[in-house]
Amino acid sequence: MGTPLASREAQATEVVDRLSAEYPDATISLNYTNRLELLVAVVLSAQCTDERVNEVTADLFETYTDAADYAAADEDELADDIYGITFHNNKAGYLKSMGETLVAEHDGEVPDTMAELTDLSGVGRKTANVVLQHGHDVVEGIVVDTHVQRLSRRLGLTTEETPERIEADLMDLVPESDWQQLTHLLISHGRATCDARNPDCEDCVLEDVCPSSKLDSDVDLASGEAW
């Protein structure tokens, strides 16, 4: 129990293979119909559940249909329209500023480069990666959210701590053809089995190769703390 494979490369391959079999339909869980809706949804999803975002955007996307709508919005009203989203006041400011930039610099369209996306308010590398992958079919990196950060450390794929360094480490470790799907697989497993506080190691398809297994280890490598 809990014995990782001899190399990180072999461990990563095993993780991808087993999780692919466990979650064959793993994909993004945010609802959207175009690139702008995707961008908005991902910005709103920071530190907020996808389920809650989908609830809020069901009405939001009927009211705000293009970048100009966000640019022209009253910020307080926009904040009310996304009430229930974590940090809704701050994110209303991001959405309005984002709309203004899209209208002024990109003819209202969502750009397709990392540099242009990360110049938008509220958009970091993680958000930009999601938009590139699912909006433009461009895979430049690996999306490292809280699930990916936790599981990649817990499974012994990396010892890095920050999302940026974890992404770089995983990009060197995992074949580029698996970059996009690795994120969805780790998120699916993090939600279903390997949660932050009480992972269900007894029902985990990776338990026998997981160096953090509660059945065989005293330490959670994700946090470096004792179980």
CATH topology of the largest domain: Endonuclease Iii, domain 2
User: Structural class, judged by helices and strands?
Assistant: mainly alpha
Low-confidence stretches: none
Task: Tell me the distance between the termini.
Answer: 16 Å
Strand order of the largest sheet: 1-2
The name of the CATH architecture of the largest domain is Orthogonal Bundle
Helix content: 40-55%
**Silhouette:** elongated
GO molecular function: 4 iron, 4 sulfur cluster binding; class I DNA-(apurinic or apyrimidinic site) endonuclease activity; DNA binding; G/T mismatch-specific thymine-DNA glycosylase activity; metal ion binding
Keywords: 4Fe-4S, DNA damage, DNA repair, DNA-binding, Endonuclease, Glycosidase, Hydrolase, Iron, Iron-sulfur, Lyase, Metal-binding, Nuclease
Protein name: Endonuclease III
EC number: 4.2.99.18
Can you tag this structure with a few keywords?
single chain; mainly alpha; Endonuclease Iii, domain 2; Endonuclease III, domain 1; 2 domains; 2 strands; elongated; DNA binding; EC 4.2.99.18; HhH-GPD_domain
Can you give a write-up of this model?
It comes from Haloplanus rallus. [4Fe-4S] cluster binds at residues 194, 201, 204, 210. One of its GO terms (biological process) is base-excision repair, AP site formation. Its cofactor is [4Fe-4S] cluster. The chain is mostly helical. The protein folds into two domains: 8-26 and 145-226, Helix-hairpin-Helix base-excision DNA repair enzymes (C-terminal) (Endonuclease Iii, domain 2); 35-135, Hypothetical protein, domain 2 (Endonuclease III, domain 1, Orthogonal Bundle). It is 53% helix and 2% strand. The chain has helices at residues 8-22, 35-44, 50-63, 67-72, 75-81, 88-106, 114-118, 125-135, 146-154, 163-173, 179-192, and strands at 219-220, 225-226. A hairpin with a 4-residue loop joins strand 1 (219-220) and strand 2 (225-226). Helix 2 packs antiparallel against helix 8, helix 5 (75-81) packs across helix 6 and helix 9 crosses helix 11. The longest helix has 19 residues, at 88-106. The radius of gyration is 19 Å and the shape is elongated. The model has no long low-confidence stretch (mean pLDDT 97).
